[in-house]
Inverse folding.
C-alpha cells in the first residue's frame, strides 16, 4: 500500500516538475534564405543572381566586364563556384565539382530549407556597365570639393571666396566610363559648365557644375564641418624656420600675408597655402625694427608696424590696400612711447579702414596700457591714440593683443596677454569674463582675432605650448560672458568649439605665434589660420552650410 | 520500515510543496499583455552578403492573461521614417530590392518571438556611400494586448555588409620575437569584413591591422593599408594558415576557426605569430 502511495507521489512530483519547464525555443528556420551565389574558384568575389528567391527555371548571374569593377582586369567566369548557405544546399545535376562554367548553361539542383528540391538552369552574362555617374568633384587649386546632387545631375560649388574662374578639376566617374570635355582642361566654374559622362555601354548623362547658394545653419559653424584645408612649414614656403622673425599673419580676401621681420613679406593663396607673391615693403623697411608685425581689417587692408622700444623713436604703421599694393602709405607715426614700454609687438584692427575701424596696440611692460586709434569714414581721427587700461586681475609684461567686436567705441573688446588674461572686457577696459588659462591647457597666449560668422561670434587665440610646439583655440563668444565656462562644465564644448592639433617647431625662443580669422564674402565659410614661429602655418576651414538644403 | 516510508513521505510532501511554490502567488496577479520591441530606436546593423534572415525580437510583458498568445502585426513604417528624417538627415530607406518580410504577423506565445526580415541581394557595394535604414514598427496587436508606444518602432540602420566569416572570435596564441621571447595572446576579436572573403583583425602591435583572405580553406595574410611598414605575411615555415567551418543558420555566419601563422617586422626584427581564432558568442 505504502509502495503504491509512494509511486503515485513520485509520479505527481515528476508531473509537477515537468510542468515547471518553460517552452523551449526550437528555432524557426522556415524563412531561411534559399539563395545561391557564386564566387571565383579561389573563394574570392561574391555575386548574387539577378533575381531574388524564389527563383524561376533560369537563374541568371550578370557580371561586370572587369573584376574588381574599377580595375582593368577582364573577368573570367569559366571557372566559378556555386554556393548556398546552410540549410540550403546546391549541386550540379552532373555531380562532381561545385565549379561551373558560367559561359554555358548548367543544370543545378537547389535543396531548400524546407527540404524541397528543384532544378534550375544556371547561366552567366558579362554585361557592360550602364553606370555614368560623377562620384567626386574637386578643384585642387582652390582646395574646394563639390557637392554631388545626383538626383538633379548637378555638382554644386560653394566657393567661400575662392577664385574658381580658371580651374582644372579632378573628377572621378564610374568605372570604365568616359567624360567630356576633358578633365585636364581649365574651366570657368563661376558659370555653369556641362560635362557629359558616357557609360561603358554608351549611355550618356549630362552633369552641370555650377555655383550654388544653399541655406545656412541657424547660427554659427556647422557641427562636423571642420576641415584642415592646408598646412605648410615655413621652410616649404621658403622662409627661415629658425630665425624667430616670422611672427605674424594677416588674411585678406584672397591671400594670407606672412610677416617676416627684415624680409620682403610673402603672401600665399589663402585657400591652398601656395606662395602667390612678395609684398612691396617700401617705407616700413626704412624704420627701426622694420615690419615687426602685420594684421588686416575685414576689407583686406593690411597694416604693418615696426617695434619701438626707445623713447623718442616712433611707432610706424603702414597701410596696404591689398597684399599686392605697390604703394603702401604711412598711416600712423606715433612718437609717444613711455619709458620702459614697447610698442608694435602686437596689433589688431577691427572694421574697414576705408570706412570705420579701430586699431589697437597693447603696450608691453605698461601696466596693461592699450592704445586705440579710431578711423571714421576712412580718415584717421588723430595720430594720437586714446590710451586706456585693462583693469583685470593679471598684468601682462611681454606683449598682448586686443581687438573689439566692431568699429564702435562702445563695442566689447577681447584681450590675449603674455603673461596675463584671455578675457572679454567692456569699452572701459573692465574685465567681463576670462578663460581659465591653466585649466584650459594654455601655456601662454598673446595673439587673437575676432570674427562674426553666421549670426555668431568667434574668438581665436594662440597657445604657445612649449618652445617647440603650439596650437590654436576657437571660442564661440556669441555670449561673451560664457568665456569663463570652465573645462569641467558640460557646456564647455559649446564655448570652446575647436582646438587644433599641436604644431611642432624648431626652437621658438621668443615663444611667438599668431592667429587670424577670415570669413568669406558669401558668408558660407570661415578659416582659422594658426602660425607658430619657426614651425608652420595651418588653415582650418569651417562652414555653416545647411546640408539638408542641398540634398 | 514504516519509519522509513514516513520519512520518504515527508520528503516527497516537501518536494511537492516546493514544486507548487514555483508559481506561488502569481495566480493572484493580473498584468495586461504589452508588446514592444526591445531594440527600438536607431540601432546599427550589418547585412550578410547575398540573402539572409534578420531576426527582430518582439517581446510580450504581462501575467495571467486568459489567452497567452498575442498576435502582432508588424511592417515597414513610412510615416515613422519621414518623422525620423526630420531629425536624422542623410538617411535613405533601404531599397525594396534589398529586403522582404515573408510574414508580417508574429504570434508571441511566450515572452519573445522574432519578426523574420529577409535581406536580399546584398553586395559589397550595396551600402557604399549610403545610409540605409529600415523602419519597422508594430502596426497592431490582437485586442487582448496593448502596445508600448515608446518602443514600437525600430530603425535598423544597415551601415555595411558583412561576409559569412565575420563574427566574434576568441583568439589564443603567441608571438615569438627574434630573440625567442614569447608573448601570449588571449583576447576577443571582432573582425570587420573588407570583402566577400577578406576580414580585418587587429594585430599584436597597437594600431596594426591584419587582413585575412580566405581562399577556400587556405588563408592569405597581409597587412591592411596603413600597416605596410610591418611587412605582414604568411609564415609557411611554421605552418599553413587555414580556415575550417560551416554556415550556421542560427547565427547567420560561418561557425569555425582560423589557424594563423604569420610574421611581421618590428624595429627591424622578425616577430612570428601563431594564433587560433575560434568562433565564440
Amino acid at each position: 500500500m505504502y509502495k503504491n502511495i509512494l509511486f503515485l507521489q513520485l509520479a505527481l512530483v515528476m508531473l509537477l516538475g515537468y510542468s515547471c519547464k518553460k517552452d523551449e525555443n526550437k528555432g524557426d528556420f522556415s524563412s531561411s534564405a534559399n539563395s545561391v551565389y557564386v564566387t571565383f574558384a579561389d573563394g574570392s568575389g561574391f555575386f548574387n543572381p539577378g533575381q531574388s528567391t524564389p527563383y524561376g527555371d533560369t537563374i541568371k548571374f550578370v557580371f561586370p566586364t572587369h573584376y574588381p569593377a574599377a580595375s582593368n582586369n577582364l573577368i573570367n567566369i569559366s571557372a566559378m563556384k556555386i554556393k548556398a548557405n546552410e540549410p540550403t544546399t546546391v549541386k550540379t545535376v552532373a555531380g562532381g565539382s561545385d565549379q561551373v562554367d558560367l559561359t554555358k548553361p548548367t543544370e543545378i539542383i537547389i535543396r531548400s530549407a524546407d527540404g524541397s528540391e528543384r532544378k534550375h538552369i544556371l547561366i552567366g552574362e558579362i554585361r557592360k556597365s550602364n553606370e555614368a555617374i560623377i562620384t567626386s568633384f574637386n578643384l585642387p587649386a582652390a582646395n574646394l570639393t563639390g557637392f554631388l546632387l545626383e538626383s538633379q545631375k548637378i555638382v554644386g560649388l560653394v566657393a567661400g571666396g575662392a577664385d574658381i574662374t580658371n580651374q582644372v578639376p579632378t573628377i572621378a566617374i564610374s568605372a570604365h566610363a568616359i567624360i567630356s570635355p576633358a578633365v585636364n582642361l581649365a574651366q570657368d566654374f563661376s558659370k555653369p559648365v556641362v560635362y557629359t559622362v558616357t557609360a561603358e555601354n554608351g549611355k550618356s548623362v549630362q552633369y552641370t557644375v555650377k555655383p550654388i547658394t544653399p541655406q545656412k545653419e541657424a547660427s554659427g559653424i556647422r557641427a562636423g564641418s571642420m576641415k584642415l584645408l592646408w598646412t605648410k612649414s615655413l621652410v616649404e614656403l621658403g622662409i627661415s624656420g629658425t630665425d624667430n622673425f616670422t611672427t605674424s599673419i594677416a588674411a585678406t580676401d584672397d591671400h594670407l600675408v606672412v610677416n617676416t621681420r627684415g624680409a620682403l613679406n610673402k603672401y600665399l593663396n589663402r585657400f591652398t597655402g601656395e606662395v602667390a607673391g612678395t609684398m612691396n615693403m617700401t617705407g616700413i623697411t626704412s624704420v627701426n625694427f622694420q615690419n615687426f608685425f602685420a594684421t588686416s581689417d575685414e576689407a583686406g587692408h593690411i597694416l604693418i608696424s615696426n617695434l619701438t622700444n626707445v623713447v623718442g623713436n616712433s611707432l610706424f604703421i603702414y597701410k596696404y590696400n591689398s597684399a599686392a599694393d605697390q604703394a603702401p602709405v604711412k598711416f600712423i607715426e606715433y612718437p609717444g612711447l613711455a619709458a620702459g614700454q614697447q610698442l608694435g609687438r602686437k596689433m589688431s584692427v577691427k572694421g574697414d579702414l576705408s570706412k570705420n575701424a579701430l586699431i589697437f596696440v597693447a603696450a608691453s611692460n605698461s601696466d596693461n596700457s592699450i592704445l586705440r586709434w579710431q578711423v571714421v569714414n576712412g580718415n584717421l581721427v588723430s595720430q594720437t591714440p586714446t590710451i586706456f587700461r585693462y583693469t583685470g586681475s593679471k598684468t601682462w609684461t611681454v606683449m598682448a593683443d586686443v581687438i573689439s567686436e566692431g568699429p564702435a567705441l562702445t563695442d566689447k573688446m577681447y584681450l590675449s596677454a603674455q603673461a596675463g588674461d584671455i578675457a572679454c572686457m567692456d569699452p572701459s577696459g573692465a574685465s567681463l569674463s576670462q578663460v581659465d588659462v591653466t585649466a584650459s591647457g594654455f601655456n601662454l597666449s598673446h595673439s587673437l582675432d575676432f570674427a562674426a560668422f553666421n549670426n555668431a561670434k568667434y574668438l581665436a587665440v594662440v597657445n604657445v605650448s612649449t618652445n617647440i610646439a603650439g596650437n590654436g583655440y576657437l571660442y564661440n563668444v556669441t555670449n561673451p560672458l560664457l568665456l569663463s565656462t570652465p573645462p569641467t562644465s558640460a557646456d564647455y564644448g559649446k564655448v570652446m568649439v575647436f582646438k587644433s592639433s599641436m604644431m611642432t617647431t624648431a626652437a621658438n625662443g621668443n615663444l611667438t605665434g599668431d592667429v587670424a580669422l577670415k570669413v568669406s564674402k558669401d558668408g558660407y565659410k570661415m578659416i582659422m589660420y594658426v602660425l607658430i614661429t619657426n614651425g608652420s602655418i595651418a588653415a582650418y576651414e569651417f562652414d555653416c552650410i545647411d546640408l539638408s538644403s542641398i540634398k | 520500515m514504516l519509519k522509513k516510508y514516513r520519512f520518504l513521505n515527508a520528503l516527497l510532501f516537501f518536494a511537492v510543496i516546493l514544486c507548487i511554490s514555483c508559481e506561488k502567488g502569481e495566480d493572484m496577479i493580473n498584468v495586461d499583455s504589452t508588446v514592444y520591441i526591445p531594440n527600438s530606436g536607431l540601432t546599427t546593423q550589418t547585412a550578410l552578403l547575398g540573402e539572409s534572415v534578420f531576426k527582430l525580437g518582439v517581446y510580450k510583458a504581462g501575467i495571467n492573461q486568459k489567452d497567452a498568445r498575442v498576435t502582432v502585426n508588424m511592417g515597414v513604417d513610412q510615416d515613422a521614417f519621414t518623422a525620423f528624417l526630420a531629425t536624422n538627415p542623410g538617411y535613405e530607406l533601404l531599397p525594396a530590392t534589398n529586403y522582404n518580410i515573408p510574414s508580417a504577423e508574429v504570434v508571441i506565445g511566450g515572452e519573445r518571438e522574432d519578426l523574420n526580415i529577409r535581406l536580399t541581394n546584398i553586395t559589397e557595394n550595396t551600402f557604399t556611400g549610403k545610409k540605409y535604414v529600415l523602419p519597422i514598427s508594430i502596426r497592431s496587436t490582437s485586442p487582448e494586448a496593448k502596445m508600448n508606444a515608446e518602443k514600437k518602432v525600430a530603425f535598423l540602420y544597415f551601415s555595411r555588409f558583412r561576409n559569412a566569416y565575420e563574427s566574434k572570435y576568441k583568439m589564443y596564441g603567441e608571438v615569438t620575437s627574434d630573440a625567442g621571447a614569447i608573448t601570449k595572446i588571449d583576447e576577443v576579436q571582432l573582425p570587420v569584413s573588407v570583402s566577400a572573403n577578406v576580414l580585418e583583425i587587429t594585430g599584436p602591435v597597437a594600431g596594426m591591422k591584419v587582413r585575412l583572405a580566405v581562399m577556400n580553406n587556405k588563408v592569405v595574410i597581409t597587412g591592411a593599408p596603413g600597416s605596410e611598414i610591418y611587412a605582414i605575411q604568411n609564415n609557411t615555415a611554421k605552418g599553413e594558415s587555414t580556415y575550417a567551418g560551416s554556415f550556421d543558420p542560427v547565427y547567420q555566419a560561418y561557425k569555425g576557426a582560423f589557424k594563423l601563422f604569420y610574421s611581421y617586422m618590428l624595429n627591424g626584427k622578425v616577430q612570428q605569430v601563431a594564433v587560433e581564432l575560434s568562433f565564440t558568442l
Summary: The first strand of chain A starts at residue 36 and ends at 40. Confidence is low (pLDDT under 50) at residues 12-30 of chain A.
